[in-house]
């Protein structure tokens, strides 16, 4: 079956229509089909079409001025060989349920193709996931590494449900500033400790980390003392931020997690801001990292985060902070 390439568009004649009707290739145009570069390359590679004057290699070279053509072709080929019907748009590809095709079924996934060095722009990512959700599709990132290996990630916007636990009431108390942390005198049966705050220095003293201290000061549970004088929330935030430029961001996400009844503790050992406990479990369920909504993180950083979370059986969430609230974005590797 012949297809014509005029330097910009690849078309088939009437004999190409079965490619669309039977297998969902191309878009009908007149009596024939219009093929995307990925479709034409795949069909030529599988020897289902001929393009006069071009081999697979030379046609690939014609499209080489498009910087994404290699990785897009690799993803398209992989999805096709997994048994999916794939069409271009509205992101990079829309992927139909196995056994279904255009006109006789619905697409299941909307796929965005990236390289391992591409940045994740959280604001754009959130917009695309919302658009996919409004179309009742799953949003997938297909990432191609430098050795042409593919990894698929499902992206979800998580609305935190309230954790199924009841924390004890906290009694207002004083704390003494010690460096950037604070020390609280407690009894053996400390309500602060039961609520998941602080770390014991000894049987009589509990040390509060800056993000915990900010939360408790904001709620009016802790009055912070610096010597004989009290210290305001703003004064302490300015002091603690001198050595932690992310503290305001972390405080915002920490407060939101606490608002839903979760218990966040430092996630330093996992390379993230928080490990988060749900209910009374002795093991944390989530890893959470706070970012600005306008932030851009390399895909390689996201990959390491997801791999770490998976290895310790936790979900990986990024808390994207913006003026109207926090959007929690979950990244998870999937097999299609």
From TrEMBL:
<feature type="domain" description="tRNA intron endonuclease N-terminal">
    <location>
        <begin position="176"/>
        <end position="237"/>
    </location>
</feature>
<dbReference type="GO" id="GO:0006388">
    <property type="term" value="P:tRNA splicing, via endonucleolytic cleavage and ligation"/>
</dbReference>
<feature type="domain" description="tRNA intron endonuclease N-terminal">
    <location>
        <begin position="5"/>
        <end position="56"/>
    </location>
</feature>
<dbReference type="GO" id="GO:0003676">
    <property type="term" value="F:nucleic acid binding"/>
</dbReference>
<dbReference type="InterPro" id="IPR036740">
    <property type="entry name" value="tRNA_intron_Endonuc_N_sf"/>
</dbReference>
<dbReference type="Pfam" id="PF02778">
    <property type="entry name" value="tRNA_int_endo_N"/>
</dbReference>
<dbReference type="GO" id="GO:0005737">
    <property type="term" value="C:cytoplasm"/>
</dbReference>
<dbReference type="InterPro" id="IPR006678">
    <property type="entry name" value="tRNA_intron_Endonuc_N"/>
</dbReference>
<dbReference type="InterPro" id="IPR011856">
    <property type="entry name" value="tRNA_endonuc-like_dom_sf"/>
</dbReference>
<keyword id="KW-0255">Endonuclease</keyword>
<keyword id="KW-0540">Nuclease</keyword>
<dbReference type="InterPro" id="IPR006676">
    <property type="entry name" value="tRNA_splic"/>
</dbReference>
<dbReference type="GO" id="GO:0000213">
    <property type="term" value="F:tRNA-intron lyase activity"/>
</dbReference>
<dbReference type="Pfam" id="PF01974">
    <property type="entry name" value="tRNA_int_endo"/>
</dbReference>
<protein>
    <submittedName>
        <fullName>tRNA intron endonuclease</fullName>
    </submittedName>
</protein>
<feature type="domain" description="tRNA intron endonuclease catalytic">
    <location>
        <begin position="71"/>
        <end position="152"/>
    </location>
</feature>
<dbReference type="InterPro" id="IPR036167">
    <property type="entry name" value="tRNA_intron_Endo_cat-like_sf"/>
</dbReference>
<feature type="domain" description="tRNA intron endonuclease catalytic">
    <location>
        <begin position="249"/>
        <end position="325"/>
    </location>
</feature>
<dbReference type="InterPro" id="IPR006677">
    <property type="entry name" value="tRNA_intron_Endonuc_cat-like"/>
</dbReference>
<keyword id="KW-0378">Hydrolase</keyword>
């Amino acid at each position: 079956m012949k297809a014509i390439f005029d330097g910009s568009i690849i078309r088939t004649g009437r004999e190409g229509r079965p490619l669309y009707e039977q297998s969902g290739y191309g878009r009908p145009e007149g009596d024939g089909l219009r093929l995307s570069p990925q479709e034409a390359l795949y069909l030529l590679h599988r020897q289902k079409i001929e393009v006069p004057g071009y081999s697979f290699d030379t046609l690939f070279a014609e499209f080489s001025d498009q910087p994404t053509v290699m990785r897009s072709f690799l993803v398209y080929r992989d999805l096709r060989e997994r048994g999916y019907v794939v069409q271009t748009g509205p992101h990079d590809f829309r992927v139909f349920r196995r056994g279904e095709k255009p006109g006789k079924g619905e697409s299941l996934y909307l796929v965005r193709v990236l390289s391992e060095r591409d940045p994740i722009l959280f604001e754009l990512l959130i917009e695309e996931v919302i658009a996919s959700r409004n179309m009742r599709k799953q949003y997938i990132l297909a990432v191609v590494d430098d050795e042409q290996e593919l990894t698929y990630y499902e992206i979800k916007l998580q609305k935190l449900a309230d954790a199924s636990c009841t924390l004890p009431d906290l009694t207002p108390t004083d704390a003494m500033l010690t460096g950037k942390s604070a020390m609280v005198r407690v009894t053996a049966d400390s309500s602060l400790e039961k609520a998941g705050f602080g770390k014991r220095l000894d049987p009589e003293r509990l040390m509060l980390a800056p993000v915990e201290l900010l939360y408790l000061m904001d709620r009016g549970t802790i009055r912070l003392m610096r010597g004989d004088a009290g210290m305001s929330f703003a004064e302490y935030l300015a002091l603690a931020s001198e050595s932690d430029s992310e503290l305001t961001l972390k405080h915002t996400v920490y407060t939101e997690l606490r608002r839903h009844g979760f218990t966040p503790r430092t996630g330093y050992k996992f390379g993230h801001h928080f490990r988060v406990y749900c209910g009374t479990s002795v093991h944390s369920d989530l890893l959470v990292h706070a970012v600005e909504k306008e932030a851009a993180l390399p895909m390689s950083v996201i990959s390491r985060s997801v791999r770490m979370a998976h290895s310790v059986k936790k979900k990986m969430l990024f808390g994207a902070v913006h003026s109207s609230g926090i959007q929690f974005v979950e990244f998870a590797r999937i097999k299609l």
